[in-house]
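Late entry, evening session. Most of the bench is empty. Finally got around to the prediction I had been postponing all week. Sequence below, unchanged from the version circulated by S.P.
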Amino acid sequence: LVTDLFKLSEDAENITLGFDHSKLRYMYDEESIKSAVSDLVDKAGKGRDGVFIEAGKDIFYGTSINLDPLSLARYTDSSLVLVVGGESEAIIDDLTFAKENFNLEGIRSVSVLINKVSDIEEFEELYLKKIENLGFQVLGIIPHKEQLTHYTVNYLVDRLYAKVIAGNEGLNNTIKNIFVGAMSTGESLRSPLFNKENKFLITSGDRNDMIIAALETDSVGVLMTNNILPPPNIISLANEKNIPLLLVPMDTFQASRQVGRMESLLTRGDENSLRMLSQLVEKYVSVDRIFD
C-alpha cells in the first residue's frame, strides 16, 4: 500500500524489517536491530527531505524485540507522533498515562494526532487545553468516519483465501452488515438484521433457499461454507445481479468467527476509502507542522 501510494521505487520487502516477532528475535539482538534500522532509514532517506517510520499497532508492540515506537525514535533521533483514537475519555486517559509513566528522555519531541473523534467541537472545548498542558503538541483532530470501518468483499476474499464462484463484477461492494444464516429462511426474512443495507450473508452452500433470499434482497455478497456449491441457477442469478458468491472449506461457525475478528485495513484497490482518508488528512491535519 505504502509503496504504491507514494510511488516508491523500492520493493516493499526492502523498506521493512518484517512483522514476525519470533523471526526478528532470532535474527537480531539490540545492537544489530539499531544498525539494521539505521541502514533502512539511510537508504529510504537518500535523496528525500524526510522519512516516516511506522511502528507497530500500539506503543507497546515490539518492545520484546527492541522495535517499540520509543526505541525507534531514540535509534533514529526522530520526532515521535502518537496516534490516539476512540472515546474522548479514553484518549485523555491514554495521553495522561503516557506523560506520567513513559520514559520520553532522549526523544527529540513528542506530538499527538487524535483520530476517530465523534464530535470535534466538543472534544476541543473539553480536552484540547488539557492535552496541551500535558506538553503535547496536537497536530490534528480527525473525525470518525463509519465508511473507513467497513471493508469490501474483495478484502474478505483475500483474508479467507475464498474462491469466487460468481459475481466478479461486485467484488468492490462494501460490506456494512453481516448476517449468519443458521436459522430457517422464514425466520431470517423476519429478522431486522437480514433486511439491513449492504448485507453480507454467511451460510452453508447447501442452503439454497437462504442464498436465493439474499440474492433477491439488498445483499453485497454471500459466503458459502463447507465447500458445497449451489446449483447452476443460483450461480447464474448471482452473475446477473453482480453479487459475489464465495466458497470456503470451513464450516459456518468457523467462517463467522474469522469474519467477526477481521479489522478493516486500507488496501491498494480501495480507492474510495483512500480518497476519503486523504481528504480528511488534508482538512484536519497540520501537515506542515509535522515536517517542521
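Two things to note before I forget:
The mean pLDDT is 89.
The first helix runs from residue 2 to 5.
Will write this up properly tomorrow.
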